[in-house]
Amino acid sequence: MMSALSQPPSMLEQRAVIRFLTIENVSVTEIHKRLKSAYGNSVMSIQHVRKWRKLFKSGRVCIEDEERGGKPVSVSTNVLMDKVEALIQSSEMFVFPLLKI
């Protein structure tokens, strides 16, 4: 049962638990059951537990995401651009020199 002091676990925390329990040779179903028992319903799916257990069984030790190649994800929407512009205009930290054209 989740204690009142517990917060939703981070992905890294869950992966660390999965890694430890994999070393202990605990099954996927039992790992997921124990994660839910400790943290409630805010845990990763059993499919993700299965994926990470398999990675750890095959020798992976790092719980962090591996760097990926390719172009970084970027988002630019009019709403986002308007918010950024409003933030810049409302802040005294941003001072832009006048440009002569």
Question: How would you describe what is shown here?
Answer:
It is a single chain. The chain is mainly α and 101 residues long. It has a domain at 11-57: Orthogonal Bundle (Arc Repressor Mutant, subunit A). The protein is built from four helices and no strands. Helix 1 (11-23) crosses helix 3 and helix 2 (28-39) packs across helix 3. It is elongated.
Topology of this protein?
Layout: H1 11-23, H2 28-39, H3 46-57, H4 78-90
Helix pairs in contact: 1-3, 2-3
List keywords for this structure.
single chain; 101 residues; mainly alpha; Arc Repressor Mutant, subunit A; 4 helices; elongated
Task: Give a quick rundown of the structure.
The protein is mainly α.
Shape category: elongated
Strand content: under 5%
Gyration radius (Cα, Å) is 22 Å
Helix content: 40-55%
Give the helix tally.
4
CATH fold node name of the domain at 11-57: Arc Repressor Mutant, subunit A
| Helix/strand order | HHHH
Text of the CATH class of the domain at 11-57: Mainly Alpha
What's the main sheet like?
none
Please tell me the overall pLDDT.
Answer: 84
For the termini, the CA-CA separation is: 67 Å
CATH architecture of the domain at 11-57: Orthogonal Bundle
- Contiguous low-pLDDT stretches (5 residues minimum) are none
